[in-house]
Amino acid sequence: MLRNYLTIAWRNILKDKFYSLINILGLTIGVTCGLLLLLYVTDELSFDRYHEKRDRIYRIVSNITEPDKINHWRDTQAPLAKTLRQDYPFVENYVRFFPYGRVMFRRGEKRFYETDVYAADSTVFDVFSYTFIEGDPKTALDRPGNVVLTQTTARKFFGNQPALGQSLQTNDTTFYKVAGVIEDVPKNSHFTFNALFALGPNERQADYWGNFYVVSYLLLPENFDTKILESKFPQLYEKHMASIFQRMGIKITYELQPLTKIHLHSKLDGEAGGDIGYVYTFAAVAFFMLLIASINYMNLSTARSAKRAKEVGLRKVMGSLRKALMAQFLTESVLMTVLALTASLIFVALLLPFFNTVSGKEIQFRELLQPQFLLIALAIVVFTGFISGSYPAFYLSSFEPATVLKGSFNAKGGSFFRKTLVVAQFSISLIMLICTWIVYQQLNYMRNKDLGYDREQVLTVDYQDGQPRDRYNALRTALLTNPNIRSVATASSPTSNIGGRVIFAVESNTGLKEMGFKPMGIDHDYLKTMGMKVVSGRDFSADIPADTTNGVLINQAAVKRMGWTEPLGKKVLLGGLPQAGQPSPPTAKVVGVVKDFHQQSLYSPIEPMIMVYRPNNGVVHIKIDAKNADKTVAFIGQKWRETYPDRLFEYRFLDQDFESAYRADELRGRVFTAFSTLTILIACLGLFGLATFTTEQRVKEIGVRKVLGASVSNVVFLLSKDFTKLVLFSFPIAIPVAWYSMDRWLQHFPYKTEIGVGVFVMACALTLFICWITVIYQSLKAAVANPVKSLRSE
């Protein structure tokens, strides 16, 4: 029986090739998009799941509550994890990562900068699952002076030769022995590194509870109730931290984040990761694309109902049961879906490199061949095949044989249902179009918002240690001989990524008060180089040496926080309040107020900050002219190498740093835009199917109208009017849903664009225009047809 169904289904597909092509094309687009989005979602959900003990690993998160602000940091104090292991036996193990940042390694003449370098406890390979290529994970980091490299890092220095036991030198002339080489940390990891040092004396002896700079993880028993450990944290604060923070009104608590939830669920200050909201969104988009493709099949199948009515009548007369007819039509839809799936797998293979570029992923085609993915593909076939074939099967099998064989069959039945499906299609498409529009409005807003400084044509170079900075003045003098270099300055951190907070004692209305501020060391050229404005007082001056100890600059946010009406002259202790037996920190006064500028991306609000005058800092900022930029950069590189012959010259532009902060949302926006466009395309195919159905059923009516004098434009307007109504019906459905969704999405941004009426007007107008373009072909075809042919049988 099944073979018979398949044979008939195949013949029907070949019988009307154009109809079949349109049907398969719509299903292919839907299934292809569904598979690509499914790959994206699967990759997002796979983060950190390759670790064998993934369900037992937790990251410690610090919640710092100040009198006027709550901070959520991934960093903890160095002794925290170690203390938890010692005090609570149910903590089975711990790992800490101490950041080294960007380090220059050298071996002979080979020198490379490596980013994401850390020192780690030797337990790292007991807790996390990393594959060793060389070395023993049990002893790799058990002694100071050892280093473990990733495979890519090892190949830079040793090629395909064994690296185990070889030596590498760092900036500060320290030699490290390669004690292990591991496979590169998988891309689907929330935390990556290129090299791990064994803990040195400084890290091993770190026991101060006042600094937050270490990333800490715990290994807990299976099915452990984390609330048991979290209930112990207040005791920890009283025992180790109250003496440091309580006098400042600062409370510190911790929470435990399951490893597998960090990427998608963590929303910590300054941490860029995934977003479970996007996973839900893309999963919904995949579902709706399959649904819209199924709706297309329904519309196109019912559009051919008149052609198949006699077939159904004859088969019923010959004794065919209704359930057999339904099985036949369902077989056709499933076969169509199987053909679409086959084509989709080919398209996915061809489009995957492009999709990876657009989405920023590194998905391999072999992931399509995984058993779980093949099962999902089979489920898509079943779902799409039965959903798309259900209504045609029910509708076509319901024809009365006597009616259709007499020739009095009217195929207009079910038109309300078909029109409802089209309204649903265009409602979904319009929602996606509006959302895409607002996403790009927000991204453009963040790109173009005034940051409080000029990021264009600012080149930055990082020092790697303090030794070469005493030659900075020589470098600056040499650079300024080039007329294309406008200004040179130093700062303690990049302008686009100023770090954490430091405690200062600041004059308030009730005396000196300890509070946390973002600190920054700058020289007297920094504000000029960055185009920042002093709104009150003055800038630092090289002619006033006392500025190095007696002067500070603050931003407007600091003035607002302190409630000052006249900030100039206010006292600031460059540290906390003096404690018994400790020397008093230097006392400075506010000499100027700088207009607020964004110290990080627009995902973070502007924070109160204090700038201190330091002649030499860790980051060099160089403002250059746009003309002859390549030659100017080459000149800078030459002077850098002359000044620091033992240092590599590596630079970046500040606007590139700024753009990289939004890269994740930019990539998601591209994916969303691409699939929004394809959703509209699939919806247009559905509209084309309904236009085909309508013109087929009204061909005699159109013939009569033309005989009675109706013009082509009259007929086109008549047919287009009905479709226009359908699209117009989608507007009041789509607009509230899109507005609500995007309003909630924008709440995640401290600085956001406004959702204007223009977005909805333009999106609706574009949708209506696309509708008219879609139906005009069928309308014109019917309007210019010879009425004699349509009326010949009357």
TrEMBL record:
Keywords: Cell membrane, Membrane, Transmembrane, Transmembrane helix. It is a multi-pass membrane protein. It is found in: Cell membrane. GO terms for molecular function: transmembrane transporter activity. The keyword NAD does not apply. The chain crosses the membrane at residues 20-41, 277-298, 333-352, 373-396, 416-440, 671-691, 723-742, 754-777. Its main location: membrane. Residues 20-195, 456-606 form the MacB-like periplasmic core domain. This is Putative ABC transport system permease protein. The lineage of its organism: Bacteria, Pseudomonadati, Bacteroidota, Cytophagia, Cytophagales.
